[in-house]
Automatic annotation (TrEMBL):
<keyword id="KW-0436">Ligase</keyword>
<feature type="region of interest" description="Disordered">
    <location>
        <begin position="225"/>
        <end position="248"/>
    </location>
</feature>
<feature type="active site">
    <location>
        <position position="195"/>
    </location>
</feature>
<keyword id="KW-0961">Cell wall biogenesis/degradation</keyword>
<comment type="similarity">
    <text>Belongs to the CobB/CobQ family. GatD subfamily.</text>
</comment>
<dbReference type="InterPro" id="IPR029062">
    <property type="entry name" value="Class_I_gatase-like"/>
</dbReference>
<feature type="active site" description="Nucleophile">
    <location>
        <position position="98"/>
    </location>
</feature>
<dbReference type="InterPro" id="IPR043702">
    <property type="entry name" value="Lipid_II_synth_GatD"/>
</dbReference>
<keyword id="KW-0315">Glutamine amidotransferase</keyword>
<keyword id="KW-0573">Peptidoglycan synthesis</keyword>
<keyword id="KW-0133">Cell shape</keyword>
<dbReference type="Pfam" id="PF07685">
    <property type="entry name" value="GATase_3"/>
</dbReference>
<dbReference type="InterPro" id="IPR033949">
    <property type="entry name" value="CobQ_GATase1"/>
</dbReference>
<dbReference type="InterPro" id="IPR011698">
    <property type="entry name" value="GATase_3"/>
</dbReference>
<comment type="function">
    <text>The lipid II isoglutaminyl synthase complex catalyzes the formation of alpha-D-isoglutamine in the cell wall lipid II stem peptide. The GatD subunit catalyzes the hydrolysis of glutamine to glutamate and ammonia. The resulting ammonia molecule is channeled to the active site of MurT.</text>
</comment>
<protein>
    <recommendedName>
        <fullName>Lipid II isoglutaminyl synthase (glutamine-hydrolyzing) subunit GatD</fullName>
        <ecNumber>6.3.5.13</ecNumber>
        <ecNumber>3.5.1.2</ecNumber>
    </recommendedName>
</protein>
<comment type="subunit">
    <text>Forms a heterodimer with MurT.</text>
</comment>
Amino acid sequence: MASGEAKPIHVLQLYPRDMNIYGDFGNALVLSRRLQWRGYEPILHSYDPEDEFPEQVDLVIGGGGQDSGQDKIQQDLLRLGDRLHALAEADTPMLMICGLYQLFGHSFLTREGREIQGVGILDLRTEGTDTRLIGNVVAESKEFGEILGYENHSGQTYLGPGVEPLARVTKGEGNNARDAHEGARHRNIVGSYLHGSLLPKNPAIADFLIAAAVANRYGEQIQPSIEPAGSAQPIDELTRLARSTATK
Ligand code: GLN
């Protein structure tokens, strides 16, 4: 399809200035490229505190950050609360990683005892600890198969009954050091602790988000697998390379 004819999909990245560590921006790149391969035009909006909120939003992503970065964006995030709740309830696909995953929950009690209030879209809460959970993670998801990524967080997250775990950890820790749960699922929202970034290693999650965005916006279905036109390597090889470093 010529680019002039491609249908736009608006991807909103929340707080890239403060919430974008360990390569989380790779998630925006993967979504953009996989949308293009399917003939859609990705339009990436970056939203930082006090920016104008875009009129059209088809997919929302957010990354991780230091506790201090979470402090900086907290008030603005709460101000966006109603908008984000409305998008979530309209089944807008969302991917929230680590720091923003925590703040999509009810609260994050930092290890210094400061409470950072979350936006409460996901039924979960987080407590800071003195032990950082660091390293590669392997987890099994019924929906997405084997998920690989990298975690580095002091906050430990506990899920409430309003969400399902994204996956069961077989290596590493995930949400906390106790229950072998990694991430959370609710409506079309995926929350996860995994950086690396997540989507290059786990394209099934990227395609889930894209499929939901395209279905909501245009009532269209995407093909489950794709051959990238003009790419030097098939996607399977790229994915294999991304994943090959992730299990050590
Ligand atoms: N600051 C949070 C924590 O340490 C989130 C870290 C992150 O996004 N990697 O738990």
